């Protein structure tokens, strides 16, 4: 802990000193909005899928403010699938932070930034501040840089390195989408359409079609994802399996999705399904190995309904409009549940996932509108 605090202290001092060397004259919000940039750089290298999906309306807001500009996003490789085919972005610049701790990859990425030649850069953040993001905007060569106030996070960077400082909101206020947009909206860059966006590629839709064809059973197609990025967000696996088994016994097409970190959950899920189903139904449902986010999105576009925990694929489902029941534990759905009319959060008043029983979840899942007008 002491070593971490010491490193943070050094980082604050060094970043503040460097920011003074990058000092640029201040501009007003009116001057920024009146600018006519040819190229815009947005720096937001999230590592969490849900956070990146919630940030997609920010890209729409920038596109609406500067419809003629070419817009590039600095993105972490893990979230390429989320933004690669965004209608509001023209280019994706992949920034692998771990690789860029070495001089070679770092210098190569800086060359890519410089070659883009942005006129205007936006450094976006939500509940944390990234000195690295500010530095990337600075070395890009952009004449104008707009970013969030660093002082609430303990860094004296923004007042020196930015042309315009947007307000920061270190605590999540309201819905995550609104919280992401709040700094931009404060300087007059906003959008009326706050829906999230994730567009699968045509090839991913073709893969999804082939996968769906091989799922045994009768329509409609039921998708489920028993995993989650955080243990506290996992509804008990045996209960998830009980809901899945209900649909398998009814002869429905059940496809279970998983992420790269869900191996332990899926092992338990398989064992539960074997115990719940007779031998002749053990292969009557399909487990899909980890696939790209784009393929998952394309499958969700086809699904009649989707059952999941509070995790990244919940945000993907909201972005593509899949009828979804999302199970919430300690996280407040008022802040994190996608605001799509077909997505319904379910949370016990205690905030404990263990308090949600099988019948309660099954009934709520059956009450989803579904894509099939005849229901399930």
Give a short synopsis of this structure.
This protein is of the alpha/beta class and 376 residues long.
What labels would you give this structure?
elongated; alpha/beta; 6-stranded parallel β-sheet
Give a structural overview:
- This protein is α/β, with parallel strands linked by helices and 376 residues long.
- Helix content is 41%, strand content 15%.
- The chain has helices at residues 2-21, 29-34, 49-65, 80-83, 103-116, 131-139, 158-161, 176-186, 202-213, 237-249, 263-276, 293-302, 312-320, 333-336, 358-366; strands at 39-43, 70-75, 91-94, 120-123, 144-148, 164-166, 218-225, 252-256, 286-287, 305-309, 324-328, 343-347.
- The strands form 2 sheets. The protein has a 6-stranded parallel sheet with strand order 3-2-1-4-5-6.
- Helix 3 runs parallel beside helix 13 (312-320).
- The model has no long low-confidence stretch (mean pLDDT 91).
